[in-house]
Structure formats: structure tokens, C-alpha cells
Design goal:
Strand content: over 45%
Radius of gyration: 13 Å
Structural class: mainly beta
Oligomer: single chain
Helix content: under 10%
Number of domains: 1
Strand order of the largest sheet: 3-4-5-6-7-8-9
Distance between the termini: 13 Å
Number of strands: 9
């Protein structure tokens, strides 16, 4: 899931497609609203790195994602911040 403002949460999926660097990552953003258009789903692929803090990190010209890995009651969770083509907020993903 991702937050896009106070009290606004939208579904988002994250898939890590390999286990070697660079990580092949796919983000699926649901309920994306663009000016003058209906809500849509957007899929973005990128290559992630592990930064000096041990976080999954990607920085592009109009986007940035940094996610930390946590153990949350026995389940692994990635959580952090994003900036994506003008939208920013937090993201949280639990392993299925």
C-alpha cells in the first residue's frame, strides 16, 4: 500500500523478480488519478540497489524509492518513502 496524503491510502504491489544485484523490481500502482482522466493502473519496472544503509533503493530522473526491511510479528515487511512523477508519500509491503 502507499499513502498519497493525509488519510489517503492506495493499493500498490511490489515484486522482486530476482535475488542478485541489481534487483529487478516491478511496482504496480492502482487507482492512479491523472488530471482529466479516469483512475488507472500503472506498472513500473526498475533496477534496485542496496544502499549503504542496507535499504532497497532506486533513483531516477523523476522518481525515487527507498525501502527498509523489517520483521513485523514474524512476517517480513518492506517500508519506506517514495517520490514518483510528482507524487510522494510512504509505502509498506508485507511478504505474501
Amino acid at each position: 500500500m502507499r499513502t498519497i496524503g493525509p488519510g489517503t491510502v492506495k493499493n500498490t504491489d511490489l515484486e522482486i523478480l530476482n535475488d542478485t544485484l541489481p534487483l529487478q523490481v516491478k511496482l504496480t500502482f492502482y487507482d492512479v488519478k491523472k488530471p482529466g482522466k479516469a483512475f488507472t493502473t500503472e506498472i513500473r519496472d526498475f533496477k534496485g540497489k542496496i544502499n549503504d544503509q542496507g535499504n532497497l533503493f532506486h533513483k531516477g530522473p523523476d522518481n525515487e524509492v527507498e525501502l527498509s526491511l523489517y520483521n513485523d510479528d514474524g512476517k517480513m515487511k518492506l517500508e519506506g518513502t517514495y517520490y514518483w512523477f510528482g507524487s510522494k508519500g510512504t509505502m509498506s509491503f508485507k511478504k505474501k
